[in-house]
Amino acid sequence: LQTLERQVVGGEQAKNKDLREKHKRRKKYADERRMQLVAALQQSDEDSGDWVLLNVYDSIQEEVRAKSKLLEKMQKKAAETEIRDLQSEFELEKIDYLSTIRRLERDTMLFQQLLDQVQSLVRRDCNYSNLEKIKRESVWDEETGCWKIPEPVIEKTRLP
């Protein structure tokens, strides 16, 4: 009886080694795939589990409530993502502005030191020898976007 069973089970292909290997590979692949799905379900939180599994609802209202909750959760996640993106963008702009301010401060210090060095070289009878007076007389021109500074003048005093 057992000999007959072994011959009958699997039919005429019962002794085919290639077919048995093929069945073993398919079973192994199916087991691996099942393990991957189980691992993915365990890793995913209950919110994303709704996307993986097909839900069966008793009524339309229950389905609407469940999908509304899911929609609210997804909108909340999208809003949080948008907030994080905006915060990181703001942080990058802030860093850029601060570096620009630091660079401009260094440039201003350089120009101030140059002026201090050059001022001693300007003739005393020139109106540029007094920088404070030049600053007071300078006017900002909105149209051109630059300073209008007085022309250099050398004052020659003659004794009678």
Describe the structure.
There is one protein chain. This protein is mostly helical and 160 residues long. It folds into two domains: 18-121; 124-152, no CATH class. It is 68% helix and 4% strand. The chain has five helices and two strands, in the order H-H-H-H-H-E-E. It has helices at 2-8, 17-43, 46-52, 60-119, 131-137, and strands at 139-141, 146-148. The protein has a two-stranded antiparallel sheet. It is elongated.
Could you tell me the number of beta strands? 2
Strand order of the largest sheet: 1-2
SSE-based structural type:
mainly alpha
* Average pLDDT level: 82
pLDDT < 50 stretches: none
- Percent range for β-strand residues: under 5%
Number of helical stretches of at least 4 residues: 5
Please, how many domains? 2
Give helix % range: 55-70%
Characterize the overall form.
elongated
- Give the terminus-to-terminus CA distance: 148 Å
Run of helices and strands: HHHHHEE
* Rg value: 42 Å
Largest sheet: 2 strands, antiparallel
Question: Care to give the gist of this entry?
Answer:
The protein has 160 residues and is mainly α. It contains 5 helices and 2 strands, in the order αααααββ. Keywords: Coiled coil.
Defining key terms:
160 residues; two-stranded antiparallel ribbon; 5 helices; 2 strands; 4% strand; coiled coil; KIF17 protein
Provide the fold topology:
Blueprint: H1 2-8, H2 17-43, H3 46-52, H4 60-119, H5 131-137, E1 139-141, E2 146-148
Antiparallel strand pairs: 1-2
